[in-house]
Amino acid sequence: MGHRGFGPRRKSDPTMASLVLVENEVTYGGKYDHWLDSTGESYQFPNQYRTKIVEGVRFVYYRGVRRADGRRGDAEYFGVGCIGSVWRDPTVPLAAPRSKWRWFCSVDHFKRFPKPVPSKVDGTYLEAIPNTMGWRTGVRLISDETFERILRLAGLVGFGSADDSAHGPTAVPLPAITEVHVVEQKGPWQVILAATNPQQIPQVAHSESVARRSPQAKRLGDRAEEIVLKWLRTTLPPNVATTVAWVAKQGRTPGWDIEFTDAGGQHISVEVKGTTDDVFQSFEVTAHEWEAARTHGQHYWLVLVTSCASTTPQVTVISSPYVLWERGELQIEPIVWRMRRSPTTPS
């Protein structure tokens, strides 16, 4: 099924509605900080919202007043997107009560607002919520009128129009690569691996993530690789920089995107992950990539690129991710399984 884009809601389709997805930086007492959300990439939610979160539905992101640095900010809307693929969180046993089930959805066509929109404008809340408890609802329905008003206040004039529905969503503008200045940073990360068997995470090598990737995601993924390519060629010693090759651009899929030979003659494999957001809370690796990380050990790099659509993207290198996982310094959660018919099953 194709995505509906950001055009007006089809009145003949009762499943279509605009949503607010709540993604707080932190919550009171850390009570709800366990949700595995990655802004603009994926969203995790409890079973009670499953009927609301449907592929193709458009939404705006909302966050409350608490900030990760301990300060308080404005309650505000900060981005827009479209619900992509939806799948059940397989870490919750099937035998568990339905009320305990959790789900993930991928996020397509994400665009961060040029300026956040406060929840209250001219003394009136944009959402008509009858009581304070309603603000604690993690997934809320909003009218088309409210959705469009939030986008206008965010400065996205024309975004979500009928023209967008007909010709695809507005693409995130990318600066010329010559204008990009890459900054290296460091930080702790959590790895989410698409696995076929939660008991044999290190051994799986044949499952790939089934979450659908939009053309926009492919475009941004290519830009992230281009950023890393530029960074390597400008920071490595000249004799090493000449060996840098963009294997993904050549159509090869060995389990990494870029490779080079270091000063000691050792082959280095580089897998790139990118996001337009300014932070990775988590990311996915395929079983094919993870097997390559296991095989290459300390010579395999994961390079994370944040703010990849800006002129100042940041790169973070995770060297030897498999070794770090063995030491307990990286966490892995299987979130996708592939099912196929057994060849011994009678027709």
Per-chain topology:
Blueprint (H helix, E strand, L loop, with lengths): L17 E5 L19 E5 L11 E6 L12 E13 L13 E17 L1 E2 L2 E2 L13 E4 L1 H10 L8 H6 L15 E2 L6 E3 L21 H21 L2 H4 L3 E2 L11 E4 L5 E8 L8 E3 L1 H10 L3 E7 L7 E6 L1 H6 L21
Parallel strand pairs: 1-3, 9-16, 10-14, 13-15
Antiparallel strand pairs: 1-8, 2-5, 3-4, 4-5, 6-7, 11-12, 12-13, 15-16
Can you offer a commentary on this structure?
The chain has 347 residues and is of the alpha/beta class. The protein folds into 2 domains: 18-167, ph1033 like domains (ph1033 like fold); 177-326, no CATH class. It is 16% helix and 26% strand. A 6-stranded mixed beta sheet has the order 2-5-4-3-1-8. Strands 9-16-15-13-12-11 form a 6-stranded mixed beta sheet. Strand 6 and strand 7 form a beta hairpin. It is globular.
